[in-house]
Every structure is written in C-alpha cells, then in structure tokens.
C-alpha cells in the first residue's frame, strides 16, 4: 500500500488515493495513511456474523470515497462475487506467486516444496474466481539453495513494491497489457 501511495506522491501514477480501508484495526497502513492526510476506515470482519454483512459494510465505507479503482494490498479476505461484480474491471490485487501457480495461501513454502527455479509475484484483476483474473504484470525472483519461506518472501516483497505501482500506472492510463519485470 505504501509503495502505491509513494508512487502517486512522486507522480509516477496519475491517480490520487481516495481512501485506505482495512479489515483489521491493527493494520499499520491505517496510521501511515492517516499521517499523510488520506481518509481511512476500518471494517473489522470479526464484528460481523456473515460475509454478506461484512461486505455490505465495506461497500458502505467505500462509497463516499468515490474511488474509480480498488487496489487490494494485504487484504486477506476472500470476497464474494456479489462484492466483486460492481468493481469488476476496476479491482486489482497483488499475489505472492507467479500465477496461475500457487493460488491462495502459503505460496513461498509451496514454491519451495515444488522445487521451482523461480518464484515471484503477480498483479491481476480480481474476478469471482480466486486468484484467477487477467494477469496485468509479473516479477520474477530466483529460488536459490538455502532459501526459506521467509527469505523467499523477502525477495518477492521487493519485487511487489516495484511491480504494483508500475502496473497501476499502466492500468490508470488504460493499458492492460501484461508487464514483466525481472
């Protein structure tokens, strides 16, 4: 999230942040966004009996911000088709693997267990199918002997901070062609 905000501040992305929303009150990005004067909201998923009421509250919090694009970054909740549909074609996510490999959680350990030579991250459009939307960009890191899930995660994170702003800049400009970073 901070790399997206930094890219907007530098003028690398022709957009302005409308809001930072989290589903956890302890999310560090809330305080960092507020310190920059960006509106924030927290909709704690634990306060809701079901996914539908949680998603309705998230949408209600987002509506006043009048955002054109929704960028997920560290939002670790699976969203339903009912939430996604109104945002389809305008919602992006960053995933810590080279999709379509290793959808879901624990991607770094799964990459190590699979013995792949490269790993990385993907920015994709969000559709109702988990981690299956059109790929807008990928960045690759080598998997080296001695890598652990933690060391691999650290290498991928560096690339996430490069890839997501680059893809968002292109997306805002109307370019949805896949970007590859090495």
UniProtKB/TrEMBL annotation:
SUPFAM superfamilies: Formyltransferase. One of its GO terms (molecular function) is phosphoribosylglycinamide formyltransferase activity. Keywords: Purine biosynthesis, Transferase. Belongs to the GART family. Its EC number is 2.1.2.2. The keyword Transferase applies. Residues 4-168 form the Formyl transferase N-terminal domain. Pfam families: Formyl_trans_N. Pathway: Purine metabolism; IMP biosynthesis via de novo pathway; N(2)-formyl-N(1)-(5-phospho-D-ribosyl)glycinamide from N(1)-(5-phospho-D-ribosyl)glycinamide (10-formyl THF route): step 1/1. Catalyzes the transfer of a formyl group from 10-formyltetrahydrofolate to 5-phospho-ribosyl-glycinamide (GAR), producing 5-phospho-ribosyl-N-formylglycinamide (FGAR) and tetrahydrofolate. InterPro entries: Formyl_transf_N, Formyl_transf_N_sf, GART. Gene3D superfamilies: Formyl transferase, N-terminal domain (3.40.50.170). It catalyses: N(1)-(5-phospho-beta-D-ribosyl)glycinamide + (6R)-10-formyltetrahydrofolate = N(2)-formyl-N(1)-(5-phospho-beta-D-ribosyl)glycinamide + (6S)-5,6,7,8-tetrahydrofolate + H(+). Coiled coil: none annotated. This is Phosphoribosylglycinamide formyltransferase. One of its GO terms (cellular component) is cytosol. (6R)-10-formyltetrahydrofolate binds at residues 51, 76-79, 93. The record marks 131 as: Raises pKa of active site His. Transmembrane segments: none annotated. GO terms for biological process: 'de novo' IMP biosynthetic process. The active site is at 95 (proton donor). The keyword NADP does not apply.
């Amino acid at each position: 999230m901070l790399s997206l905000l930094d890219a907007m501040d530098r003028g690398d992305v022709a957009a302005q942040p409308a809001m930072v929303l989290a589903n956890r009150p302890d999310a560090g990005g809330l305080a960092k966004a507020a310190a920059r004067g960006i509106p924030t909201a927290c909709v704690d998923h634990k306060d809701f009996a079901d996914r539908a009421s949680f998603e309705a509250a998230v949408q209600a919090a987002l509506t006043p911000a009048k955002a054109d694009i929704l960028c997920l970054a560290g939002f670790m909740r699976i969203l339903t088709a009912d939430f996604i549909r109104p945002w389809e074609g305008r919602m992006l996510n960053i995933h810590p693997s080279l999709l379509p490999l290793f959808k879901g959680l624990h991607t770094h350990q799964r990459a190590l267990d699979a013995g792949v030579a490269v790993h990385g991250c993907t920015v994709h459009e969000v559709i109702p199918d988990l981690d299956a939307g059109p790929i807008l960009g990928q960045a690759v890191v080598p998997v080296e002997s001695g890598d652990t899930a933690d060391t691999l995660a650290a290498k991928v994170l560096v690339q996430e901070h490069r890839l997501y702003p680059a893809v968002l800049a292109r997306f805002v400009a109307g370019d949805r062609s896949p970007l590859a970073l090495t």
